[in-house]
Amino acid sequence: MQPEAPERLEELVARALEDLESVKTIEALDSLKTRLLGRKGLLADAFAGMRMLPEDRRGRFGKQLNEAKASMLERFEAKKRQLETGQKANPSSSVLDVSLPGPLPQVGKLHPISQVQDEILAIFMQMGYSVAKGPELEDDYHNFEALNIPKHHPARDMQDTFFVQDTGGFLLRTHTSPVQIRVMERLGVPAQVVAPGRVYRRDLDPTHSPMFHQVEGLMIDKDVSFADLIGTLDFFSKRFFGPDAAVRFRPSYFPFTEPSAEVDVRCIFCKGEGCRVCKNSGYLEVLGCGMVHPAVLEACRVDPDAWQGFAFGLGVERLAMLKLGIDDIRLFYENHPSFLAQF
Amino acid sequence: MLASKGLLERLAGFSIPLDRLEATLMQAGFELENIQNFVPEFQGVVTASIEEIRKHPNADRLSLCRLRSNGRTFDVVCGATNIHEGVVVPLALEGATLQGRTISAAKIRGIASEGMLCSQKELGVSQEHEGIWLLPKGTPVGVPLEEALGLPDVVFDVSIPPNRGDALSHFGLLRELLMILGEPSPRLPVQESLPFVGETPVEIDLAEDCGCTGYVGTLLENLEEIQTPLWLSRLLLRLGKRSVDFWVDLANYVLLEVGQPLHTFDADLLKGAKIHVRSDIGEREFRALDSRAYKIPKGAVWILDEEGPVALAGIIGGADSMVTSSTRRVLLEAARFDPIRIRKTARELRLTTDASFRFERGVEKELAPLATMRFLGLTLEECPGVQLYRPSVAGDFQSPRTTVHIVLPKVEKLLGFPLSNEKAFDMLGRLGEIIEGPESGFDLRVASYRQDIQRPCDVAEEIARFVGYGSFLQTMPKPVYSVAMEATLAELPVVVETKAYLRAYGFCEVVTYPFSSRNMLEALEGFDPFDMGSSLMLENPLQATDPYLRNTLALSLMKVLRTHTGAAKDVVRCFEVARIFGRSKEGKPSERETLGILLKGGLARAVWERAVPLSPLQALKGIAENVLSFLCLSRSVVRPESGLFWEANRGFRIEEAASGSPVAVFGEVSQKALRAFDVKTKGVYFLEVLFPQVQKARTTAYRPFGRFPAVLRDISFVAPEQLAYQELEDAIERCRPELLAAYELFDVYQGGAIPPGFKVYNVRCTYQSMERTLTDEEANGVHFGFIEQLTQKLPIKLRT
C-alpha cells in the first residue's frame, strides 16, 4: 500500500466514520477496528508514510494523525458500549418502552394487622423477648381470678365478656394477659416473653370491635423496675413511631399491675397541636402497663419478695390505625379486596 | 363521672386554674374524657320580681308589667300570658345582649318599655320558648342571672378507676386533687349541730347477714311544697341529672357532693314504725320508682316496712313509697351495703343506678351519718319550717384502717428510683399516719377512705404519682436469656413461613370474626373436617343471630367470599390462619389453629405460567402438601371425602398415614353450600390445614450430593385409566435402582393417539453416580432394567 498523503487523511477519517455507523454487531466492529487501527491497519500505514514527508511538514501531520486516532478510538468505544447495551444510537427508534409496567409476579398481601403485629414482635424480639401463645377459649381463673380480678369485682366491667354456654365458665379471653399466667405456670421465672393473639369483648363501634388483637409483654427477674418499664416502652414507641415520637406516661389502674400506667404518644397527625383524632388533647393513648401485682405472682407460685417485673398490653389495631391513618376499625374485618391491596 | 369546676371550687374555698386542674387530674391518673364549657349566652340580665301587671292601653295581647330589682322599679311591655304577680323572672335591661342581640329601650304601641322579659330559648339555656321563664320561688331578686344559674362553669368528664370509689364525688375528687397538689385536705361541708325536735320514731332492724352493716333513718316533718332552687336544678342539669322534685334533687346533690347514696321515702306511705333490712327473700316482682316492674332475684338485699319490701337496697326505691310534690313527711335513708351483693343483683337485673354504681365500688363506711347531716342542713336552709328528728341508727360506721409496713429500699427497688427519707415521709404523710418502727422501715396507717391501699406496691404507686411519672429515670432491664423458654415457646415459625409462602403465591390474608349462625352451620351440612365435635355457643352473643363459634374456617371465609365477589372480582385468593372451636367427646371445650384458603379463578398466572392452567384441585393439593411439609409431618395419604359441603367426587382429605387422623381437607365447594351463603358464583375451592398442637422441631442434616454429570432419560408409560399415580410411585420406590438420583412426573394425558381407557404418564429419570461419570451404556443398562421391573410389577407398557 502506498503511504497516505496528508491531504487524504480527512477522507480516510470520513470513510471510517461511515463504516462505523453501519456496523451492527460487536464482531463487525472488532474487524473494522483491526482494519483501521490495528497493527497493520490503515492508520499504521499513514504513520509509516509520515517518514516520507519533508522534515518541516512531518511534525504537523504527526499531530493530525494522533488526533484522528484518539477521536476514532473514542468513537469505537462509544459504539461498543451502544452495541453491548443493545441500545440504538437514535433513541426515537427504541423498541422497549421502559415506562410500561414490568411483568411482576402477582404477589399477595399480608393483612395490615399481621404486618403491624410482626413489626411489634420484631422490636421486642430484638430486645430479647421470646414469643408465647395461649388459648382464646379461657377459663375464668386464668382470664380473671389469677389476674387479681375476683368474681364480683367492678373491674370486670372494664371488659365486657363473651361467655360460652354449658362449659362451666369458659369464656373468650378478654385480653392476652392470661398468657402471663400460663407462661409463669409452665416455665416459672425469670421470664421475658411477648404474646400476640386475638381477644374478644362485647363491643362494636368505629373504634371498638368484638374481636381484636393484642400483644402482651411480661418481664420478671430479680430487680426489673418501674424505671425499666418506662425505658423499655419509650424505646419501643420510638422504634415503632420514629425517633421523634414523644412519649408520655401517666398513672392508670389495672387490677393485675401496681403501679399501673397508661402510655400516650404525641399525636402523629397534628404533632401535638390538637386535632380530631386526638380529641384536641395532643396525645394518643397507645398502651397500658405496670409492675406485675404481687397477687398475680403469688397465684403463679412465684415469691413476690424475691421476684419482680413488669407487664404491658398493646392494642395492635390501635397502633395499626395510627400508623396507617385508618379511622374505622371495622375496615380491618370487612376484608375488602381494595382495602387489603393497599398495604 | 361528671364534675363541676364551680362545685369543686366552692368545696375548696378557692379557685383553681383550669390548666392546673387538668394537669392534676392527669397526674392523679384520672383520665379526662371530655371538657364542656358552660358560658352564659346573655349579658346584662338580672332577676326581677313582678309587682304589678296591667293591660296595655293600646293592645289587647300585651300587658304592662312593673318589676322590682336592685331596689328600683322597671316598666316593661310584655306579650306573654304565663306571668303573674309575685313571680321572679329574668329581666334583660337596656343594653343587655341575648345570644348576640342587643336590647334597647323602645316604645311599644306608644308605651315605653325599659327592658324585656325573657324565655329560656331567648336566653339560650334551653329550647323552651313558650312563655317567660318563671324562676323558682326563693330565687334571689336583683342578682345577675348568670350568678343565679351558677355560670360560667366547666364540667369535666373524668374516668375514675374502679378501685377508687372514694373519688366518686366532688368532695372525694377534690380531696384527691389537693393531696396531689400537696394542699391540706378539704373539710366535709357538714353542720355540726342541728335543731332536732326529738328522736326519729322509727326502729331500724338489721337482720343477721343481711348485706347492710349500718343504717341511718331520719324523719323530717312539717314539709311544704318546695321548688328546687335554681342553682341546684341548673347544676344537676350540667351534671347530667334531670331535676325531678326537691327531695330527689337534694338527695342527688348530696350524692354528687359527698358520695353517699341516699333514699327518701314518703313516711306517710310506710306501714308501721319499723324498717327492716333483710336478704332472705326469694325471687319476687317489684315495681320500682321508674314505674317499671322488675323480677328481683333471690339473695337481693331488701328494705321492708311492716308489710313488705319498699326498696331494693342500694339500687332503686319502690314506686309505692316514693316522694311526690304532696309529700309532707320524709324518711331519709343513708346506709352502707355490701358491694358484692349489690353488684350481683344489679348485674342480674342489668340495671346500673348512681347508687348501685357507688355501692359496688365501695362507699366510705363513715359517710352515712355525715351525709345525713349534710342533707338535713341543706333542707333547713331551703325550708326553714321543717322539723328534724334525731337520726335513728343501727349497725356501725367504724372503718377498719389498714397498716402497711414499708421498707424504703424495697420501694426504691420496685420503682428504680432513689428516695430520701424526708421526701418519702412528706409524701406518705398525705396518705395517713407514719408510725416509725424498728430499723427495717416503718408502718403507714392508711386513711380510712383509701381502702385501695393494702400492700407496699400500692404505696409505691402513690409515691410514683406524687413524684410524677414524667420525672422517672428511664433505664433498660438486663435481658433474660432462657434457652428453655425459647425452646418451649417457639411455635410461630411455621405460621410465619406459611403466610410468607401463600403471599408469594398471590394469596391475600384476611381476618374474620369466629361468630356464626345456625343457618350457616346448617348450610355446611355438618361439615366438621377436624372432628371438633358439637359447636360451642355464646351465652351473650353480640348479635343474637350469631351465637355459634366456628368449627371450620369455611364458615368465616365463605362470608369473605361474599364481600369479594360483591366487589365484582372473578378472582378470589385469600387465606386466614386462625382458631376453630368445638367440644371434645368428653364435653370439654377445645380449640385448634388451622389455615383456611379460598380459591376461585385459579392461581396467579405469573407464578404458574403454564400453557394449560393447573386445575384448582391440583393446585390446592400442591399447596396443602407444601404447608404440610413445613410442619414436618410424616407420610400422608389422600382419600376422597364425602359430605354435602363438596361437589360430588370433588372433596378430598389428607390423613396422616400412621394415625389416619385428618390433617387437611380440600375440594370444590358445592353449589348448594354457595347458595346458602348467598354467593352467586361457582368454581370455588376451599382448603383447610390443621396445625399441630405441638410443632416438631425441624432438623435438617446435610447429605452428600453427586458432582458427576447426570444422565436424563424420559419414560412414557401407557397405563389403564384407573391406575393412580400413587401406585406408579409406590412401584418406582420399590424398584428404585441405586443410580436413580431423582425422578419427576412431567406430564399426564389421555386421548389423541392413546386408546380409550388408557392414559400416559411421562416420567423423567435422573441417573447419577457419586463416584464417576456414567457412560450412556451404563445408564441405559440401569434404565431399561428399571423399566423392565416396573412393567412386570404394574399393568403398564412402555409407549412406543
Q: Stretches of chain A where pLDDT falls below 50 for ≥5 residues?
A: none
Give the percentage of residues in beta strands of chain B.
25-35%
Shape of chain B: elongated
Order of strands across the widest beta sheet of chain A?
Answer: 1-4-5-9-8-7-6
Could you explain the architecture of this structure?
The complex is a heterodimer of chains A (343) and B (800). Chain A is α+β, with helices and mostly antiparallel strands and 343 residues long. Helices cover 39% and strands 17% of the residues of chain A. In chain A, the strands form two sheets. In chain A, strands 1-4-5-9-8-7-6 form a seven-stranded mixed β-sheet. The longest helix of chain A is centred in the first third of the chain and has 31 residues, at 55-85. The two termini of chain A are 73 Å apart. Chain B is of the alpha+beta class. In chain B, 26% of the residues lie in helices and 30% in strands. In chain B, the strands form ten sheets. In chain B, strands 28-31-32-36-35-34-33 form a seven-stranded mixed β-sheet, sandwiched between helices. In chain B, strands 3, 4, 5, 6, 7 and 10 form a six-stranded antiparallel β-sheet that branches. In chain B, strands 12, 14, 15, 22, 23 and 24 form a six-stranded mixed β-sheet that branches. In chain B, a hairpin with a 5-residue loop joins strand 33 (636-640) and strand 34 (646-656). In chain B, helix 2 crosses helix 5 (170-181) and helix 20 packs across helix 21 (776-793). Chain B starts with a strand and ends with a strand. The model of chain B has no long low-confidence stretch (mean pLDDT 90). The interface between A and B is large, with 89 and 93 residues.
